[in-house]
Amino acid sequence: MKLGKVEFCHFLQILALFLCLSGMNQAELSRSRSKPYFQSGRTRTKRSWVWNQFFVLEEYMGTDPLYVGKLHSDVDKGDGSIKYILSGEGASSIFIIDENTGDIHATKRLDREEQAYYTLRAQALDRLTNKPVEPESEFVIKIQDINDNEPKFLDGPYTAGVPEMSPVGTSVVQVTATDADDPTYGNSARVVYSILQGQPYFSVEPKTGVIKTALPNMDREAKDQYLLVIQAKDMVGQNGGLSGTTSVTVTLTDVNDNPPRFPRRSYQYNVPESLPVASVVARIKAADADVGPNAEMEYKIVDGDGLGVFKISVDKDTQEGIIIIQKELDFEAKTSYTLRIEAANMHVDPRFLSLGPFSDMTTVKIIVEDVDEPPVFTSRLYSMVVSEAAKVGTIIGTVAAHDPDASNSPVRYSIDRNTDLERYFNIDANSGVITTAKLLDRETNAVHNITVLAMESQNPAQIGRGYVAITILDINDNAPEFAMEYETTVCENAQPGQVIQKISAIDKDDPPNGHQFYFSLTAEAANNHNFTLQDNKDNTATVLTRRNGFRRQEQSVFYLPIFIVDSGSPSLSSTNTLTIRVCDCDADGIAQTCNAEAYILPAGLSTGALIAILACVLTLLVLVLLIVTMRRRKKEPLIFDEERDIRENIVRYDDEGGGEEDTEAFDMAALRNLNIIRDTKTRRDVTPEIQFLSRPTFKSIPDNVIFREFIWERLKEADVDPCAPPYDSLQTYAFEGNGSVAESLSSLDSISSNSDQNYDYLSDWGPRFKRLADMYGTGPDCLYS
Questions:
Q1: What is the helix (H) or strand (E) element at residue 316, kind and residue range?
Q2: pLDDT exceeds cutoff 50 at 32
Q3: According to the UniProt entry, where is the signal peptide (predicted)?
Q4: Which letter, b or e, does each residue of 11-32 get, where b requires 16 or more Cβ atoms within 10 Å of its Cβ?
């Protein structure tokens, strides 16, 4: 039945094509039965031709223009008096007309997919007058489709996913192909789909393009991706039709169809007993072939003797079970633990419960290894008390620690001095008894927090720490005193019984029941006529005046001794002096000035007079200093004394010396002959000029004798002159003398080629003498060789 319908439709299409070609290719103008008539003026001529559509096949491949049709008017007698013109879409560029015969041809290849029809206008004109003999008429040239376009998948290639284990016929994705040919004419645009690659796993609906699963129980863990090739063919899939293909990548998505399984039935781990709490003991993992949420697991300890010692959690990234210590391990108490651990999927799919329980069990054995542990104190914190009156050596308390290992090594104690910098306490190394090493003061430090170290005798590297808080008990060892420095004033016009100050006291001690102070005047001040003291019984007291008429001229300051006693046992007391100043006050009793000098100055000298006196005194001092200076300058001689040291250089002021190269600045001849006669006397009051002393002749005397005599004479002069500085020092000059054993040490002579001195030994003295060795050595690398 289906095949018969297709053949019938195909027959109808061929019949329609035949009728169009036979009845429309000669679309000529036929004369109307009503004859044309002409009217003058604005009257119109009755149309005398009838139009039909022209059809032309697309994709014409011939070399000659394609004949489309013919135009003819009844007015045309065939004598050439009528010409035809064509206008509109494609006129002259695509379609041309023979103006004599009215034949229309297509000069270019036409494509229906680019333009399906063209609208043109035709007109018949008188060749002589060039006037229309017929009204202009419009006609259409339709492009007749052929099967020249293959189906195309505009959205390809495709990707899709389908859950694994899906039943047969589960829809995966729909593909769609588009054919640019005319869907209203023939089968050129009728497409059917088929699968070229991907069988037998998938199939495709021929008409709709829907891809479906073709096999049941496709397992993602076996193969998770398939590549399909889908074909779309026009002409209803018949031979000669055009086709196009696309690829479809189908991925199997995961479902929870695999239960977790431990690779091993039991595990064993060794851990040291010193492993801190919250440390990771081991990581275990149950294998699950699923991925994503379907592979998420939870672990729990369901049985065993380590339920309270260990716990297990899950690593969200790796899905591992992490076993963690909850309590400290002790090898001496328990050497091993056994745990039963279960791993189960968190998301179970009821469709696959038949595959088995989605959980698994394993056994984990944890072996505790013995380690050498540091000593452990019997208490983490010791609290002790001692009185601040305790003598040195008083026992405060005892700490105790033991070695938790089986060896039970003896323990020695010491105090961490970083916590007892002042060394107030000592501890017995063997017994752990803590005693005082210094006198204690609660007011300086009320609580001492010290750290006691306990180390094994056999392994001193193992050190335990204990913490001791020593509280100092208070005794009454501080007398009360004023709470602050009081600035007390009394007005000159104060009345008897007027309150001028309220005082209080403080005490550094800290009695259990609080402070209670008692105030009174000392015995010598109890009967004074100026002030009195009233104890308020609340640790305060009030100072009152006894009289009126205080005057600053008579007495500007009063000192009132106050006796304060505390309530300690035994009680302590102190005398504190309250300073009271007499002041001039305004009407409101506010002090204005408290200086007694304000009344004294008017009777004495004014400020201007005092300044004048000081100026005179300063002037006299300046005159005395000038006179003394002038007298000292007159005593100095104007010429050089022959006995003065002739070694003084006479140079021009503000002139820089020449250093070692200046041979004229000092005359060595004076040292060689002490009896040279000084002919010229130089005045000290004349501006000095540089004088070059000529070298006088003298007889040769041994150099050592010259120096000895010179020093001896200067020594005798210094001994008899009480004002001369000590002369018992030898000044060194750049002169060694002819008789010197060392001869000259000048570097100027050392570099001479005839020098007998060899300085090569300097290179053996180390890097500090390398520079000297390079300068004076005779080696091949000498600087001056």
A1: none
A2: no
A3: 1-27
A4: eeeeeeeeeeeeeeeebebeee
String of DSSP letters for 573-594: EEEEEEEEEEEEE-TTS-EEE-
Contacts (Cβ under 8 Å, ≥6 apart) of 291: 254
Q: Which two tokens stand for residue 392?
A: 């040195």
Q: Measure the CA–CA gap between 593 and 551, rounded to whole angstroms.
A: 12
Q: What are phi and psi of 404, to 5 degrees?
A: -75, -10
Average model confidence (pLDDT) across the chain: 79
**Lowest mean pLDDT, pick from 231-240, 251-260, 408-417:** 231-240
The helix (run of H) or strand (run of E) holding residue 614 is helix 607-635
Instruction: Compute the C-alpha angle 289/290/294, nearest 5°.
Output: 145
Ramachandran category for residue 169: left, alpha or beta (phi over 0 → left; psi -120 to 50 → alpha): left
- The predicted pLDDT at position 74 comes to 80
Return the structure tokens found at 357: 């329980």
DSSP state of 275: P
Best CA proximity match to 117, nearest among 63, 58, 65, 29: 58
- As given in the structure block, the two tokens for residue 226 are 């398939």
Neighbours of 394 (CB within 10 A): 14
Question: So what's the architecture of 481-593 in CATH?
Answer: Sandwich (2.60)
- The first and second tokens of residue 448, run together, are 């001492």
Q: Which residues, 6+ apart, have CB-to-CB distance to 158 below 8 Å?
A: 173, 175, 246, 247, 248, 249
Question: Where in the chain is CATH 2.60.40.60?
Answer: 53-144, 152-253, 266-369, 376-473, 481-593
For residue 69, the tally of other CB atoms under 10 A from its CB is 21
Dump pLDDT digits (tens) for 109-119. Answer: 888 778 888 88
The secondary structure of 186-209 as a DSSP string is TTTT--EEEEEESTTTEEE-TTT-
Architecture of domain 376-473: Sandwich (2.60)
DSSP-assigned letters across all residues of 453-491: EEEESS-TT-EEEEEEEEEEEP-S-S--EESS---EEEE
Identify whether the C-beta of residue 273 lies closer than 8 Å to the C-beta of residue 331.
yes
Q: Which fold has domain 53-144?
A: Immunoglobulin-like (2.60.40)
What kind of fold does domain 152-253 have according to CATH? Answer: Immunoglobulin-like (2.60.40)
Q: Helices then strands (H, E): number in the chain?
A: 6, 39
CA-CA distance, 744 to 746, in Å (whole number)? 6
Kind of pairing, strands 381-387 and 463-473? parallel
Q: Which of 256-260, 323-327, 438-442, 631-635 has the lowest mean pLDDT?
A: 631-635
First and final C-alpha spacing in the chain: 126
Burial code of 620-648, b = ≥16 C-beta within 10 A, e = fewer?
eeeeeeeeeeeeeeeeeeeebeeeeeeee
> Which residues are CB-contacts of 293 (< 8 A; sequence separation ≥ 6)?
346, 347
Cis status, amide bond into 200, omega within 30 of 0: yes
Tell me the pTM: 0.44
Q: Are 179 and 151 in contact (CB under 8 A)?
A: yes
Question: Is pLDDT of 281 > 90?
Answer: yes
Nearest by Cα to 485 from 509, 501, 464: 501
Please tell me whether residue 141 adopts helix, strand or coil conformation. Answer: strand
Give the three-state DSSP class for 451. Answer: strand
Contact of 137 with 122, CB cutoff 8 Å: yes
Q: Give SS3 for 16.
A: helix
The CATH superfamily assigned to 266-369 is Cadherins (2.60.40.60)
* 373 vs 33: which has the higher pLDDT: 373
The span from the CA of 365 to the CA of 383, in Å, is: 42
Would residue 539 be called left, alpha or beta, if left means φ above 0 and alpha means ψ between -120 and 50 degrees? Answer: left
Tokens of 630: 């002038």
d(CA 193, CA 176): 9
